[in-house]
Amino acid sequence: MILNSRIIGSSDKKIIILHGLLGSLDNWITFGKKLSLKDYEVHLIDQRNHGKSFHSDEFSYKHMSNDLKNYLDHHRIKHVSIVGHSMGGKTAMLFSLTYPDFVNKLIVVDILPISYNRDYDLIFDSLLKVDLTRIKSRNDFNLHLKKYFKEDSFILFLSKNLKRSNDGKFSFKSNIKVLQKEINNITDEINYNNTYQKEIIFVKGENSDYIDETYLKLTQNLFPKYKLSIVKNAGHWLHHDNFDEFFSICISNL
């Protein structure tokens, strides 16, 4: 099956954008539109079990890397640049290690190829404990999430997982139960017996702790030619926290 996408612009210069966990291509539309004005053809992609792409019980970076290869083959794309955020960044890294000849430029946003010890229980609990049959509006869903989280921006991010059918019933776009079940695959490190010999740009949010110097140095085992750029006044969702500076860093490295 081929991943759902939204293609913006038309150009020989192709760019893939990969979202993070519980995200979708919708999170990157503003970025994609602005990028297309720089003469790029932008492919915003929903990864498996997210957005409008297919659901599957199989979920790992190997599967997502293969999904991307199938997508490129389907669209007859032989060379592409990739911007991947968080989970999408790990997909991008494994794909680049596996199919380096396909990759022109690689930008990985606020993630490293290491294992992360993060607790996602509260997030999944908040989503799985809501009774969608009793939700009458998106605001009802947001009020439910406010029992768990204080940040309005994060609540808005999670609420984008909600979709409404023609009969008015709500459901989730993301395959929440499988994502919860396979969370260890998502937080796990990227293992590969080869190195990526081209340049990779890691973009870190200044206030985020996903990238630090110790683990960045270990990353050299897979990506010896790395560069680091830091977006000021930004956390893990740096493309929302400081869009202009993030965009400037990306366009200067593409």
Main attributes?
11 helices, 2 domains, seven-stranded mixed sheet, globular, 18% strand, two-stranded antiparallel sheet, 254 residues, Rossmann fold, alpha/beta
Structure description:
Helix 2 (61-74) packs across helix 3 (87-98) and helix 5 crosses helix 6 (152-159). The chain has 2 domains: 5-116 and 189-252, Alpha/Beta hydrolase fold, catalytic domain (Rossmann fold); 121-180, no CATH class. The protein is globular and about 55 Å long. The protein has a 7-stranded mixed β-sheet, with helices on both faces. It has a two-stranded antiparallel sheet with strand order 6-7. It has 254 residues and is an alpha/beta fold. The longest helix has 14 residues, at 61-74. The model has no long low-confidence stretch (mean pLDDT 96). It is built from 11 helices and 9 strands. The protein has helices at residues 29-36, 61-74, 87-98, 121-128, 138-145, 152-159, 176-181, 183-187, 213-218, 238-241, 243-252, and strands at residues 5-8, 14-18, 41-45, 80-85, 103-109, 162-164, 170-172, 200-205, 226-231.
* CATH topology category name of the largest domain: Rossmann fold
Strands side by side in the biggest sheet: 1-3-2-4-5-8-9
CATH architecture call of the largest domain: 3-Layer(aba) Sandwich
CATH superfamily of the largest domain: Alpha/Beta hydrolase fold, catalytic domain
Strand content: 15-25%
Q: Which term fits the overall shape?
A: globular
> Which radius of gyration do the C-alpha atoms yield?
18 Å
Secondary structure class reads: alpha/beta
Largest sheet: 7 strands, mixed
Mean pLDDT: 96
Q: Given this structure, which CATH class of the largest domain is correct?
A: Alpha Beta
Number of helical segments with 4 or more residues: 11
What's the helix-strand series? Answer: EEHEHEHEHHHEEHHEHEHH
As residue ranges, the low-confidence spans are: none
Termini gap:
29 Å
Number of strands: 9
In percent, how helical is the residue content? 25-40%
